[in-house]
Amino acid sequence: MEAFEHFGLWWLPDDDSRTVGGIIRFDPSNGITLRVAGLIDGLEPFSMSEMIPIILGRTENGKTITLYQCENVSIRDGIGINARTYRARAAFVGAWFETEDDIRFSSGTVQFSSLPDWVGGRAFQVESTHPPDAWSYTIRWDQPAELISNTRIGVIRLGHGHGVKTERNRSMSITQMPAFVIEVSETFTIHDWLQSVVYPLQVFLTLAMRKPASVSNMTVHADVQSSNGEVERPVAVQVVYEPAFHDTSQSGPIFRDTMLFSLEDIRDDFDTVMAHWFARVNDLREVVSHFYSIKFRSSTYLETRFLIVVQAVEAYHRRSGRRERAIPDDEYQELLTEILAGTPEDHREWLQQKLRYGYEPSLAQRLKDLIEDTQPTIEPLLINSNKFARTVVDTRNYLTHYSKELQTRAATGPRLHWITSALTDLFEACLLNDLGFTPQQARELFAKNRRYQHASQNPV
What we know:
The chain is an alpha+beta fold.
């Protein structure tokens, strides 16, 4: 999403006769702000209330804008002027919505900054001839076929647009502009759209490319009343908002050997892979959010990265239902009864609370289960799986409690780096299983990745 700044007139939906001048600013890192001013003795620039649901505006270049959920964050009184600054949760450029209930839509288009790298350039063809007296170049772009997936939330299409740019007679370029086109089965609020459509696609691409995927443009299609208020017509509305994750560090292209998989790897199975992802992502939302938070915070300390990955792996095992209980319920209840019967009555309640979740698998057991599920991928990264699990547990316990007796057994430095790397591969291999890849197919995808190749030369 590109930054912008516009001057315009602004008003509340129920009082369009009282407008104030102000400047709207947006950039992905700082969000949307509106600074307005009005005469104290005549026009108050909106209410003093903490939250204004809707502010409408028209900019100097004729754009119609709806600001959604505007919080008053600054008041400055001057001589005859009262300036206020509002921070909006979202802005809809291209339409006016009178109420929050009007802001609903069932289709839209989302583009990501690195999507062209993931899609690849097979649509481009270059031909050249160079006889002795002349040179000839032909650059052709053939629009690829649209890919379609029927998912739990609706139909997701991967479309392929393009842009052509010329500069006088000096140069000409063709840019491919792929995008996800979504048609959901019901109308969504902006919150539901971001949570159920945009975020799952963002995490999917982040998994695929092993790099943060940032939203670069988003358009929704909404029914908006005509100027006379008599009929509704579908309008393309650009949505801007302050994203939870925005990558500002990516300066160059993402190459295939740094990805986990590209579109080419799943082209024939696009429908199945996307359907599997959207069927699973709701159950794993908190887990993948926690795990991928480190992808969007590259400066995170190694120890913190390790703890985040361990928590994500443990939580994934819980959500997967791989092994819910280390001991069958009837056996555990029998064992618990026997233990409590031999415990002094004064300590029985305390011990019962301590053993309340004693049936759960340990972290070591959970790691061994997931290593077994992803064995072809993880085996080259480990010298001994039992020793690896024990080191992970000791390191997690030390970094959580900092007990001196665990300090010598906890991994540090380069060893901690490679253990964190192996846990990351373990988690992402599990996600590939969820996408429908077999363990062997996952291994083949990992084998193409440069970081994985390096890690397999430094087993832990």
